[in-house]
Design goal:
Helix content is 28%, strand content 19%. It is built from 8 helices and 14 strands. The protein has helices at 36-47, 63-79, 121-128, 132-140, 182-189, 193-201, 252-259, 263-270, and strands at 4-10, 17-24, 53-61, 109-111, 117-118, 152-154, 171-173, 178-179, 209-211, 214-216, 218-220, 240-242, 247-249, 282-284. α3 packs across α4 (132-140) and α7 packs across α8 (263-270).
Length: 287
């Protein structure tokens, strides 16, 4: 029967076409049973005391022809750049909000009462005809009932493991020793792991590691060997000899603390950049 038509909802202020649909009977003037973006637009007009204006494209159509014409008119309107509130390209009929593409951050909603699963809260809102805010509130609290005695929860997606499968590589030092991994090297040599790890990864300028009073370099299997740096170019903890009292200190800071002077000046004396500091003469101690 030729009882269908294609209609438009116009903005009452700008007269711009905002929605194109098909229907029969009083469907064109029904502003309540709407879904998705179209429902939100009608609600925004209602808050201003307005409602859409209705205009008809064609009347007296069969269901099939109405669907075809609806799709054609929606396509033309979108090509003209009109801001349609249609969620789909038309031709589906019914609650087209269920056919909307799922937002990448939207969560799947499950109704505890009947076990139905929805792709998002809006789909559940359209199906049960209740406020979407109440559905979200119910999902966030297991003690909250949305409306009509219904309870909802977010479906928990299995978390993807962020753990990477690290392949432990063997460690080689400048003496030719090979260790199963960095942990074994630290344990056998009895050295501090943080300094050793910084040297191994090339961080903090740690060019070498002191092992039993001797400089050593370490690298992972497959990497280029690291040369032993010159003592004066090496950035690390070095023993200091004070020529005034022939006392050996574990570091420049230790000497500075004992003699109550600046440790930076001690380093410059050791590097030959100044003859003394506060009358003290220092040099790097080498076994």
């Amino acid at each position: 029967m030729e009882e269908y038509y294609v209609y438009m909802h116009l903005d009452p202020l700008s007269k711009e076409t905002r929605y194109i649909g098909k229907g029969k009977g009083n469907r064109a003037y029904d502003f309540v049973n709407r879904y998705g973006y179209h429902k939100n637009w009608i609600k925004s007009l209602s808050n201003k005391g307005l409602e859409p204006e209705v205009d008809f494209v064609t009347k007296n159509l069969t269901d099939k022809n109405a669907k075809l014409l609806e799709k054609s008119e929606i396509k033309k309107a979108k090509e003209l750049g009109l801001r349609l509130t249609n969620g789909t390209i038309g031709g589906e009929g019914g609650n087209t909000s269920l056919n909307l593409e799922k937002h990448p951050r939207s969560k799947v909603v499950i109704c505890i009462n009947d076990g139905r699963e929805f792709k998002d809260a809006h789909s559940a809102s359209s199906y049960y005809q209740i406020d979407v805010k109440n559905i979200r509130r119910s999902c966030k609290s297991i003690h909250s009932i949305a409306e009509k005695g219904l309870k909802f929860i977010f479906k928990r997606e299995p978390k993807k493991s962020k753990t990477k499968n690290y392949v432990r590589k063997r460690v080689i030092d400048s003496d030719g020793n090979i260790y199963k991994n960095a942990t074994e090297a630290v344990r056998l040599l009895e050295i501090e792991y943080s300094h050793f790890n910084n040297h191994l990864r090339g961080l903090s300028g740690q060019q070498a590691v002191v092992v039993n009073g001797k400089l050593r370099t370490f690298w992972l299997e497959g990497e280029n060997p690291k040369p032993i740096p010159d003592l004066f170019d090496w950035r690390g903890k070095k023993k200091i000899l004070c020529l005034n009292n022939n006392k050996i200190y574990e570091s420049a800071r230790a000497a500075a603390k004992d003699l109550n002077i600046c440790y930076k000046h001690i380093s410059t004396v050791c590097r030959g950049k100044r003859p003394h500091t506060y009358g003290y003469i220092f040099e790097y101690y080498i076994n």
